[in-house]
# Entry
Amino acid sequence: MIFNGQTFQNINRIREIIAVLVKYGFEDVVTNSTLRNFVSEKGRISWQRQGQPVFQYTRWERIRMVCEELGPTFIKLAQILSNRPDMLPAPLIHELEKLQDNVPAFSFEEVKATIELETGKKLEDIFQVFNEKSLATASIGQVHKARLINGKEVVVKIQRPGVKEMVNRDLAILNDAVNRADRYLKKQGVLNAMDMVRSFERSMQKELDYRTEARNLERFRNLYKSYKNFYIPKAFREYSTEKVMVMEFVGGCKISDVAQLRAWGLNPEKVAENGMDIYLTQIFEFGIFHADPHPGNVLVRRDGVICLLDFGMVGTLMRKDKFAFAGIFVGMAEGDPAKMASNLRSLAVDDGIKDMRQLEYDLNELIEDFGSLDVDEASIADTTERLQKIMFDHQVRVPGDIFLIFRAFAILEGIGKTIHPHFNTYDFIRPYGLRLMKERFSPKNIWEDVNQRFTQVNSFLTSFPRDVREILAKTKKGKIHFEVELQGYGYLLKKMDSIANRMAITFLIMAFIIGSAITMTVDWGDRMGYIYGLPEISVYGLWCAGGLLVLLFYSIIRRRKYK
# Structure
């Protein structure tokens, strides 16, 4: 087994992760992967002998417990993975959805130090008032209310000290651990584990840079600047940095607070309808949407204007994905499983659908079950959950943002039914979907598609002769190389590599011994110092041979020990 510098640097954290896995009964994850090399055989024996009460919980519950104990990075990962039912089994998804940040607030002294270091200004030079008590605390940062020098009421988000370094360390370990345990994870039904880790890494790097959220706020403000019933708070970019974001304070109540809405003379049903229309506009028209619209992030002002907060998680849809996504729901409304299946295939990131006929059959069953329900019984959350299971069964991989939409629909439906007695999500989605499908087949859009295809064909025809010439030229010069991947020969290759390394060490030992013997026969005179009556060069050569011999024996013993 080869360890890189990062592994050695983080070895204590790796062992901590292993200890937590063992604590919750996942010693098989360690013993069936190269992670076992971080633990002594004595330690492994003790795992099997100790009684573990954790086995009263299901495997999925224990995975959630592992994430909770390992801290912020793993909690965030689990929260993101809870939106990927195409990759994880449904029972695991349900457990991961329960995860919440549960961390203490950090001190005001740390808050002040971070702000002053990031902005290069004293706290009192920026704020008239700064409330030392936090409004909210999470694993990445916490929020305080304040007032700027110019009198503007603001909220300030400050990144938790040291969290970026901790996350980067855990990401390096996570990459290494998943790579080592990839075969085991596949046996457990976890597909494309490394893809998930890389996607998570990109997401975390964005979340760790508050400038991204500030840009998102500005982008949404520009999109909705003409809307009278919707408001996006302003980010003060001049005070916002990678670890600090200053944003306009917006007063109001949660959209789910029916009593307060009525006390202000607002109609909750109208508020629910406005909120859903605003959100569907984001998805089907703009192709950019707020990915976490829970009640805490959706406020209603006294005048009925809806405000969205926390733009740290934003999803996007490409134009073709918008059409395909709309086509799925239109196909369902029309009772057309073939249309649903073809749009699912258009939405997929690869061509991995093996049995389109069976997919259509399963979608038809979904349509029939949905059609048998009364209007009040129909639930978008139940429907999308069934659809996600079908996608998982058929291994239909779609852009991750699609599942963020499904999750958002479920949240918004829950809010809508809380404040609107006859709220039906389908009634809102249907006209948007139909309008988008009409746009898809409009003369303007068809012409754009034709023009795009023509551009692609023209590019291919232009580059094809050049590519052929390059291939022929390289073939003549013998510069064409082929890479062949042999599946299932990993162990053999590792074994051969180990044997080659040992042979190399053996040859070096022989070279040092022979070289030392030769140097002993030479009359060095005063040109060479002597140790125990032997030339220095001979002694040094024997020492090197002895060191290599010890290394060789250790390698052999260790290899046998960890088999």
